Amino acid sequence: MTEAILLVGGKGTRLRPLTVHTPKPMVPAAGVPFLTHQLARARAAGVEHIVLATSYLAEVFEPYFGDGSALGLHLEYVTEREPLGTGGAIRNVAERLHSAPGDPVLIFNGDILTGLDIKALVDTHRTSGADVSLHLTRVEDPRAFGLVPTDGTGQVTAFLEKPQTPEEIVTDQINAGAYVFNRSVIDTIPADRPVSVERETFPGLLADGAHLQGMVDSTYWLDLGTPQAFVRGSADLVLGRAPSPAVPGRRGDRLVLETAEVAPDAKLTGGTVVGPRTVIGAGAELDGSAVLEGAVVEPGAVIRDSLIGAGARIGARTVLDGAVIGDGARIGADNELRDGIRIWCDAEIPAGSVRFSSDQ
């Protein structure tokens, strides 16, 4: 298998303010745009040609990745004029594929961090004779996901969207967001209109008697749809809990990129990432956090499980715990922000004005 479709068109609404100026797949995780990790893992699995289905802030992708040759890939870009959903986006890029009708095409979402064995998914697809194969993973609480029960051979028997009652929870297997389609199946998706693979394509194929195969792979899996999950995923990449050949440095408690300035007595732990041109002041403590390019953390600040946007400034002795600070924001000295609070891009909070704020 040599080609894939990567769905990167979402607006990343749940990740705001991180995605105000940057599409979700381009937000840095472990020092590089998250998309870099996905592309590198696909290349390591033998994929050579990838078509990126873009929409929101589509102009950002190609200037950064170009033709993909630096990653050993051939990249192409197709932009939706109007949002088409997952199925519509897949159909919209079909003309760029080179595969024959019976060839497998890998399809994956631009917001999932996973240790999926890509080659194993493709092998399962081929050996089972499936029309479509799905990566499935198991979760403790499946109510926020679509359930995908299978029979004893792994063949999918139903698609159940977000169950809410105990009776509806018939399996802990969920759709993990990576698929292998036969090329001919992609051509059956309606063109030029929104289509959801989860709600329309997959149930329709099943009703028509198509063979949909599930492969349960319970290695690392994380949906990076929220700021808290994104920060955790970045830290897990640095710590080595999540696999990627694209982490730009040694795995460990911290990742400090070139041109960053970190005071000798600053303490960086828990997979903290310090981006280029950042400044970390004397006595600052950062745990499980990400500080993006050009941000400044002043002396004595304490930052846990938080993300500091590009060009932001965190004042001396300020405490952040589970906070998200947008690009260019200014947080004065001696503030305390906790529990999922989000500060918008370019906002300013004067010194000592906030001691605590709950989730909002």
UniProtKB/TrEMBL annotation:
Superkingdom classification of source: Bacteria
CDD domains referenced in this protein's UniProt entry, alphabetically: NTP_transferase (cd04181)
Pfam families membership: GMPPB_C, NTP_transferase
Domain Mannose-1-phosphate guanyltransferase C-terminal, first and last residues per copy: 252-332
Nucleotidyl transferase domain span: 4-236
InterPro entries registered for this protein in UniProt: GMPPB_C, Mannose-1P_guanyltransferase, NTP_transferase_dom, Nucleotide-diphossugar_trans
Similarity comment text for this entry: Belongs to the transferase hexapeptide repeat family.
Official protein name in the record: GDP-mannose pyrophosphorylase
Species of the source: Streptomyces nigrescens
